[in-house]
Every structure is written in C-alpha cells, then in structure tokens.
Specification:
The protein is 57% helix and 0% strand. By secondary structure, the protein is mostly helical.
Length: 440
C-alpha cells in the first residue's frame, strides 16, 4: 500500500473522529488530547478496517457502563401529592401519609355486605373507630333467624334435587331445580278448559277406547310415560280432528304410536299395529291418520305427566312402596275419568298420594310428617280442588272391580304391584271422604 493511499485513509478517519467528537458519539478521542499514541492507533485502524468497528463498540460500552450502574443503584421514590392550599416550601421534609387500614372500600349497602381485600396492620389510626361503628351498625341491621316458612323453598329445592337424582329422571342434578321449575310452568298447557267431548262421542266410548289402549300398552311393555302421553294426545285429537266413530280405534292406535316414537327406544311395526286391530285398517290408512294427527296438533307432542310429580312427591315424603303403588293405581284410574282432564298434573298427583295415605292408614312418624309437609307444598290449588279430585278417584276405585273396563284393575292386582287394586279398603274409599259407597 503506498504512502499516498495511507495518507488519504488517515485523513478520512481523522475527519470521521472529529465528526464523532462533535456529535457526541463517545470515543476515546473525547476523553484525552490528541498525541503521538493517537497517530499510531489511527495507523493501526487504517491498516485493519475491522478494528474500527471493534473500537467503536469497545468505547461505547465503556462509556455507557457507568451510566447503567448509576441508574440501577437509584431507589424509586414516591412523589408526594400535596393537599389543596398547602404551601410547598424549599426542602420541606416529606412525611409519607399513613396507609388506610382498608385497602379497598365499598359501601356497606353493597350486595351481600362483603368487604374485599382486608390488610391488617399493627398500628391503628383514628379511621378504625368509624369503620368499626359502620360494621357494627351493619351487623345489627341483619335480620334474625329465618322462620320455617322462609326456609321451606330452600328445603324443597334440596329435596327435589335429591328426589330427581334418586329416580334417575336426569343425569346431572345441577339442573334438577331448573327442570322442575319448567315442569311446574309447562303443566299449565296440559289441561283443558272443560271436559266436553264432540257431540257424536260419549264418555262411555272414550272409556272403552282408553281401556283397550291400556291393554295394548301392556302387550308392548311400554313405559308408563308412553301411556300418559298417548291418552293426552287422544284427548287433544278428539277436540281438534273430525273423526267418525268407525275411525276412533285407529285414532287411538296412532296416538299410542306417536307417544312410543317420543318415549320408547324400540317401536312396533306398522303391520303389528294393524294386526292388533284385526286388520280392520291398512298400513296406508294408519300412516294417513298419523299425518292428520300431527298436522292437527301442529307437531306439538309435549306433555308433563302427573306420574313424574307423583314419584317426586312420594320420594320427598318418604312414602312406603305400598303407598306409592296405591297412588299409581289411583292415578291411572283417573285416565278413564273424563272429568280429570281439567285438572293440573300436579293436582292429580297430590290428590292420588293423599288418598292413598288415607286408604292405607299407615302409622305416622315425626320424620315422615315433616317430610309430608315439605312434599305437600308442591301441589297447586285449593283444598276444595284436591277434595274434588280425591272424590272422583275414590268413586272410580270403589267400582273398578265390577266394571267391564278392568284393564287397570287387573294390571295392579299382580304381585309386582303388591296387589294394591285388591285392597279391601278401596271399596269403602268414598266413605272416607263423606260420600256414599256405590252399590255392587
């Protein structure tokens, strides 16, 4: 490398260093005067261009290190907030304000009166007095122990959740009370304004049809919910669809078939249903009637069966198996009675359970009576309404053994049902309610 080339590079480097010195980009040149050693260093940098970058990095780190050290050694100080009207003098001593005992304040009238984020300290200030007074005033304003009437809804809710869980009506009892509340509301849609039937139908015709449906229900071994839904659909269809007397049996089978589609896992073949009707109707006629019923009902197959209310109430009241089977027998007898369509399912269930207890006359116990009081709060309606339903059921039970439509009587005379339909006290059941017993 020639002398002229080196001189040009040295001049360029010196101009750059002077520029760095004037702009404050910390190099060693700022800290000492220019001398012979600087010329040697410049020559070394000119011969090795990479050293230029190393020099810049080294000197920059050396300059910034003391600044970082000083910054990290400083302690963060809080700024004082002066009160209004307070004079700020020079070198005025700073006195930190005493922290409040309550880190976060909420009004005593807040929901549930919960005080959040309590920070206990050793020193107590004058604010403690006011806080203790406010707390004592809130405690004194709390109501006394709740009465039994106030506790009843909570007790009922807990018992309903346990009963529904035991009966296996749903898998998660978290939603038990919500489902029960929906049952109580939706049952209002399951009644009729009156018990009147279309002109060309009579109560006797309806009783014969329902009794036959109970027998078909037993043949297919359907669940009890299917039977209650089928009779409910039949009651609605009779009032909404024009059907002749000759098509009444077909209408009943279609209602049972629709109920099975909603409640059962296994369904019978259409040919089996036609066979049970002695092939009086074809498959095409049955399917056409099914479309008519669904259209007339607007595809609304919802029903809240009284059996569910009965089982829940019996579980809460800790009733014996015999009382439960007797109540189920009385409740199924109400399906044959056209007068019962105007009552709510919860009323039918409550009346059946109360009449069963009165017929069997089981010895009461203190726990049982308390449980019965809780279960009685489920029913809706007056005592007069319950008494009217009990009278209808008592009369039906007293003459069930002598009627031609005896499907329910035979069904509940088996050993599985504890022979409740053959209990001798049933014949005198109307007398328990002040009615005359029917002559047999």
């Amino acid at each position: 490398m020639g002398y002229k080339t080196i001189s040009k590079k040295l001049g360029a480097i010196i101009r750059k260093w002077k520029k760095y010195k004037s702009t404050g980009l910390g190099l060693e040149l700022r800290a000492r005067s220019w001398g012979k050693d600087d010329h040697e260093r410049v020559i070394e940098v000119a011969m090795n261009p990479k050293a230029n970058l190393d020099l810049l990095q080294e000197n920059t780190d050396d300059r910034l290190a003391p600044l970082r050290t000083w910054t990290n050694s400083c302690v963060l100080r809080e700024r004082r907030v002066f009160a209004e009207g307070e004079e700020v003098g020079p070198r005025q001593p700073y006195k930190p304000a005493q922290e409040s005992r309550w880190v976060r304040r909420i009004p005593i009238s807040a929901e549930d009166g919960i005080i959040m984020d309590y920070a206990p300290q050793d020193e107590s200030g004058p604010s403690d007095v006011y806080e203790e007074e406010a707390l004592l005033k809130y405690v004194n304003s709390l109501p006394g122990p709740p009465s039994l009437r106030e506790l009843m809804p909570e007790v009922l809710r807990r018992e309903v959740e346990v009963a529904i869980s035991k009966l296996g009506l749903l898998y998660d009892k978290t939603y038990a009370w919500d489902i029960f509340s929906d049952m109580m509301r939706s049952q209002l849609l399951c009644t009729f304004p009156n018990a009147d039937l279309p002109k060309h139908f009579s109560d006797t015709t309806r009783v014969i049809l329902v009794d036959w449906l109970i027998q078909v229900h037993e043949v297919f071994q359907f669940s009890e919910e299917t039977l209650y839904l089928a009779v409910h659909l039949l009651n609605r269809a009779l009032r909404l669809i024009k059907v002749s007397i000759s098509g009444l049996q077909l209408l009943g089978v279609v209602c049972l078939f629709l109920a099975a589609k909603k409640e059962e896992c296994l369904l019978p073949e259409v040919s089996e249903l036609c066979y049970l009707m002695e092939n009086a109707y074809s498959k095409k006629q049955l399917l056409r009637m099914e479309r008519r019923v669904l259209t007339g009902l607007k595809f609304d197959l919802h029903h809240c069966p009284p059996l569910h209310f009965l089982l829940i109430s019996a579980s809460i009241a800790h009733c014996s198996d015999k009382v439960v089977w007797m109540a189920r027998y009385l409740l199924e007898l109400s399906l044959l009675e056209g007068q019962c369509v105007v009552y709510l399912p919860a009323q039918l269930a409550g009346a059946a359970l109360r009449l069963a207890r009165r017929i069997l006359q089981e010895a009461p116990s203190p726990d049982g009576e308390m449980a019965w009081c809780i279960a009685s709060s489920i029913r809706i309606g007056s005592e007069a309404t319950l008494l009217s339903i009990m009278q209808i059921m008592a009369m039906a039970a007293a003459r069930a053994h002598a009627r031609e439509t005896r499907a329910t009587f035979i069904k509940f005379s088996s050993i599985q049902t504890l022979h409740v339909s053959m209990h001798p006290a049933l014949k005198a059941a109307p007398g328990l309610l002040g009615l005359l017993c029917p002559q047999t």
